[in-house]
Write a structure and sequence with these properties.
With about 190 residues, the chain is of the alpha+beta class. Helices cover about 15% and strands about 35% of the residues.
Length: about 190
């Protein structure tokens, strides 16, 4: 009787060992030498921490018929080092990294010197009235519901692509049309809509 019991115990152990071996061989890589990992909820929300890229949650673009508009969202850095975005690109418009700042008593938009930094183990919010990704001259209308693809370039040369959905927004009454002043950068009115 003991040989039957030990036979029963050995069979599942052998099957488990074979399954683990098969799984580890499959996980080693594909024919082209690249490795793949199954996506997880965390990976899709914050990108791949192992690759050192940012997570981007709730990305969106302000709908606009022409001229300038902007992209927003929350940037998540789960890594151990600060990450600096130095450039953004999309097919529908040239882009710049922008910030809002006070000049002569007015809130004005200007290029963000040094890029947008997301500290290690923290978040940075791209929002109306703050740092944002500026689309300088859209080639076609960006309508509510449209999905735009963006590519971020980081200081170390890495890139990351993400998709953002266009939404109508009147919020802080941003005006992305150049003002009458000498500055080519638009001003933002903080007054409520009439």
């Amino acid at each position: 009787m003991p040989s039957t019991t030990s036979g029963r115990l050995r069979r599942p152990a052998a099957l488990i060992g074979a399954a683990l071996l098969a799984a580890s061989v499959a996980a080693c890589g594909s024919a082209d030498g690249s490795t793949t990992a199954a996506p997880s909820a965390t990976a899709s929300a914050s990108a791949s921490a192992a690759a050192g890229v940012l997570g981007i949650s709730d990305p969106w673009v302000k709908a606009a018929d022409k001229g300038m508009t902007a992209a927003f969202g929350t940037l998540v850095n789960d890594g151990d080092a600060d990450v600096t975005i130095t450039k953004a690109a999309t097919e529908v418009s040239p882009m710049e990294l922008h910030e809002m700042t006070m000049k002569d008593g007015k809130m004005v938009m200007q290029p963000k010197e040094g890029g947008i930094v997301v500290k290690a183990h923290s978040r940075a919010t791209l929002e109306p009235g703050g740092d944002h990704l500026m689309l300088m001259n859209i080639a076609k209308p960006v309508q509510a519901g449209d999905e735009l693809s963006f590519t971020l370039t980081f200081a170390d040369g890495r890139t990351q692509t993400f998709t953002a959905v266009a939404k109508p927004f009147t919020g802080a009454q941003e005006s992305y049309a150049p003002g009458d002043g000498e500055s080519p950068m638009p001003e933002m009115s903080m007054s409520p809509a009439s």
